[in-house]
Amino acid sequence: MRKAYFALALLGLSTLSAQAAGVCNRSKPASYAISKALFKKCSKVTAADLAWVQNLDFSKEFPGVPAASHSLKTGDFEGLENLKFLRFTDHMGTSEESPYLEGKKLPEDLLAPLTNLTHLDLNNALSEVKESDFETLKSLESLRLDNNELQTLPVGVFKNLTSLKSLYLYSNQFEALPAGLFRGLTNLKVLELHNNKIKTLPAGIFSELNQLERLALYVNEIETLDQSVFSGLTSLRSIVMDRNKFKSFPRALIADLDNLEFINLSLNDIQNFEPGLFANFANLEGVNIGGNPVGSIPTDLFAGSPKLKFIALDSTSLACASPETFASLTELTELHLEWNPLRKECYQDLVNTLGTEIVRVEPSYNHP
Length: 368
What we know:
Elements: H1 2-21, H2 28-38, H3 47-50, E1 55-57, E2 85-87, E3 119-121, E4 142-144, E5 166-168, E6 190-192, E7 214-216, E8 238-240, E9 262-264, E10 286-288, E11 310-312, E12 334-336, H4 344-354, E13 359-360
């Protein structure tokens, strides 16, 4: 009798646990995804089972769960405190929208239970982000908001993401970003803002990002920047700003970037390079400034930057470049001068100083 009672008690506890999980009562895509992750029917999933779920993927329509009639809802992720990876879209070569986010925005507090989430992919999913959408995600390390229709972001939306290391905001519709947007991101290492319509950036927008190592701003519409905009980026190693609308680029913009290793300013409309623009950078290894119609370069352009290995000056309308400009760059392995009207004697002087294996030209266009 006692054994039978004990068995019934265990059965009752198991039933209560299954009811506590409530997986069958959640939206159909959430119920399906959780059941699939645990290899169980939703009616069999207990609250204890939910603690084992670490990865959920809503990037594809589930069989029998048409997106047209089913969307995620508040409460769908209750009990999933140990979830690590959450994907709403497949960013690997697809343009499909997230099938289960109605109105291309997150339901209120949908992500609130996911306090241990480390990776969140919301690319190609959203047209709107609310300030409260990510406020509980203090363990988040990677956030993908790229390839969306975002035109603005609320100040404070990232303020609690103190563990975030990578933030992807490229391929949206930003024309401007508010000051204070990146406040709190003290561990951020990668920030990608390329392929937007950004025209300028407010001074101090990056002031708290002292761990940032890579900043991508290419394919925007930036013509000028406040000279202090990059102040505070003491760990920055790579900054990519090609295909903007710069007509000039003062050295003051990058003067404080002591750890800079690579800079790309190609395909802008810079008319003159300031003397010493890339001088005295102890760690600088690569400079791409091709595609700017400068016509000539100052001899001290790279002075005192001994680690330079790669320089691209292709398509810069150069008829001549003094060997003196490069003579002290003992680690230089590639000097790209393709698609310039380079005079024969200038080419020969460069080859005599640097060698043919370093000086790269396009024989059909250059004039060696």
